[in-house]
Design a protein that fits this description.
CATH class: Alpha Beta
Strand order of the largest sheet: 3-2-1-4-5-9-6
CATH topology: Rossmann fold
Number of helices: 5
Number of strands: 9
Oligomer: single chain
Number of domains: 1
Low-confidence stretches: none
Distance between the termini: 34 Å
Radius of gyration: 18 Å
């Protein structure tokens, strides 16, 4: 009982410190013209002025540097309007997917948006078959570049499996989004990339959006 109380009060103190630090830093972070806070997890080299950028690399445009980009312990509950991740979720081990998505949900405001892009396994199957079963066309998007420690994939998704996972984590109204027409996407990333083969551009990504 004493151990549980000590753990509870220790967590309370940590949360108070976290919320205080966030209140000081938030004023220096970007926000949209209408005052919304958007978080780009795993932004890499992309720097959109609408987003708070979080990445493992200390690049000049990264606002929050974390070796574990899925641990949002520095961000209070319900302060973010949209979380965006493009070709990032597949880097999470399968047993940690639910915990990771629930952490995204924790920081989102009520009715906040989770916008995700991942390699689409159904697209990969179609590309594999259309290219004469050439593994070279699908190996990179399926398994990652594997050129540095974080660039390995642990999970695969199609629309049905990712929709089910998001629903399991408490998200609702899961639907597809279009990187060419949606708001707050004035940049190019994996969400809109294609594989070109014999004059045909094959999409590789599954782009889903859900609400808290």
């Amino acid at each position: 009982m004493k151990t549980s109380l000590a753990r509870y009060y220790a967590q309370r103190v940590q949360n108070i410190i976290r919320d205080f630090m966030w209140s000081r830093l938030a004023s220096t972070y970007p926000k949209t013209k209408d005052g919304r806070r958007l978080l780009h997890i795993g932004c890499g080299d992309i720097n959109s002025s609408d987003f708070i950028n979080l990445d493992a690399r200390p690049l000049s445009h990264v606002h929050i540097v974390s070796r574990d980009i899925f641990n949002l312990k520095s961000i209070p509950d319900q302060v973010i309007d949209m979380v965006y991740m493009s070709h990032v979720l597949e880097h999470v081990p399968r047993k940690k997917l639910v915990r990771t998505l629930r952490e995204m949900k924790r920081v989102l405001k009520k009715q906040g948006t989770l916008r995700i892009s991942v390699p689409d396994f159904d697209h990969m199957v179609h590309i594999y078959q259309s290219t004469g079963r050439d593994m070279d066309f699908v190996a990179y998007p399926l398994m990652g570049g594997q050129d540095y420690p974080y660039n390995f994939h642990y999970a695969v998704f199609n629309k049905e499996s990712l929709t089910s996972l998001l629903t399991q984590c408490g998200f609702s109204q899961v639907h597809e989004w279009d990187p060419n027409t949606c708001d707050h996407h004035n940049f190019e990333d994996w969400a809109s990339k294609t594989i070109h083969y014999e004059d045909v551009d094959y999409p590789i990504s599954l782009n889903l959006e859900a609400f808290k």
